[in-house]
Fold:
Amino acid sequence: MAQHSQSPRRVTSGSKQNTFFGGAAILAGGILVVKLIGMFYKIPLLNIIGEQGSADFNNAYNIYSVLLTISTAGLPVAVSKLVSEANALGRRNQVRRTFRLALALFLVLGVLSFLVMFFFSSQLAGLMNDSMAAPGIRALAPAVICVGCLSAFRGYAQGHGRMTPTAVSQIIEALCKLTVGLGLAYWLVNHGADASHAAAGAITGVTVGTIVALAYMLMDFLVTRSREPQLSDDRPDEPATILRHLLMIAVPITISSSMVGIVTVIDTSLVQGQLQRALLENQDTWTLYQDFVDFTSLQDALSAWQSALPEGSAASMSLLDQYASQAAALRDQQAALSTLESASLELHSALEDISRTLYGNYSGALNIYNLPTSLMAAITAAVIPAVSGALARRDRRGAGRITGSALRISALAACPMAVGLFVLGQPIMSLIFPNLNPQLAGPLLSTLGLATLFVCMMLVCNSILQAHGFVSLPVVIMVAGGVVKIITNYNVVIQPTIGIYGAPMGNVLCFALCMILDLILIARVIPRRPKYVQVFAKPLAASALMGLGAWAVYGLLDKLFRAAGILCQADVNNHAIITLSRTGNAVATLAAILVAVVLYGVLVVALRALTREDLMLMPKGEKIARILHL
Structure:
């Protein structure tokens, strides 16, 4: 979230690379390294652990993210602020006491989170309607303690104006996650481990990454402290006073930051629960997935359970949960199970397996959907100091100019990404995740593509509002959007003609509402707000034409490769046909993307969607403007 990037940055009008997009380019470089490593982790990982393993991985990680946010979200910012203030006043003893108290607080919160994740992993997995996520939750538990300590050291370094250690430690985390996580998952799969334990192996890479990164930050701290003056005559504040100041800063940030994670956990749990309920209570739902799922095991388990039910009982999810819970408790006590209790466990497991398969495909689509939004972090992080600096100089015209440029550049980046995912959803899923079902995951990605535009613009709007001092309003709006998302998915996924295809609809409505409300607020409370028609009209027009071109190129090349496959079908085996089909899809998809990029670039220049004013805020902007004759 943008709240994490609130450290002040002095902005002068005479700086060589004027504020905003110079800072964005630097931030984008660091973010890109971590995100590229993450991409090289997530894409092969899903192909290794499969659909069900992907669901287990994401369910465990969602639980971890919420507890991690609650225990660490606001405190690094608070530590950084208090250390920076004390350091500026030369209060060395105050700096040391603040750091020690923060580290102790991090440790307490981290240990509590560890205990919850490790000893209540089965209950947490049950809340997610995925009992097989429990091994992954336990594997992640130690990481919460390590990340808490990491946050203390990072806050300490940032409070001294040193950002490099944080960036290096983040890259170390990502590299360990990539090498250890992928290696362990691959080894487990090759040695016959099931999907849940393969996912736990992959997630162990996260824990190892935090341990190694913590070791690096500890060494950096010891080296840095050895070079600092040790003697100081200042009298530090009382521990209670420092703790109160820490919490006053950290609690509001923690509340706002944790909202997204909490909404995600609730939504994930409800979607998987509604999938299982629909499969049990309305067999018309089965026809929606008959091309992707083998219902033999579910049919047998359902028949056995219905036969064991007391006469007159109506099959329902609440009744199954009741019997399955009783059976699980008796099994844990090593007691004998009745026929009904055994059948309840079998049916519950069969439903869970199918929902894991379906949600695993959705998780794969979410991995692609999250890439554009993560790249927007560079712009969102740069908006706050740039706009705040202009306002501090009472340069309202400059603040308005930066706000307008931020919105235009964001629209120019978000519109083509949204249209591209919408048009090429299925080909992209086939190319990147061959082990998933593209007929199922492709439409999910296409719908999520529509949400890409809304979420990217919402993130930038939030940063603009926060930079103008409206810190709480974006949080309230996001909570409202989260409620819309939960209500939508709860009511749509249960429909037998929609099912899992309704899961992305909540994202679309949630972030569309957030974006619209943010834009209304910006128009009402911020002076010199940009004209929205100018912001969106040209990028949308260029993106629509780009999407049409990409669709045409892919369709033509796909037909050519299909025709070639039919001609040689009699002369090759099935493996060769599959290879030819995948090769054809890869060539057609990459060609369509290349044409889309070139076409969009030409259209942006031809339509004058990028102004000279925007380019003047970028590094080498004047030279680029001359080349483009702007």
Notes: Residues 1-27 have pLDDT under 50 and may be disordered. The CA atoms of residues 28 and 349 lie 44 Å apart. The longest helix spans residues 20-72.
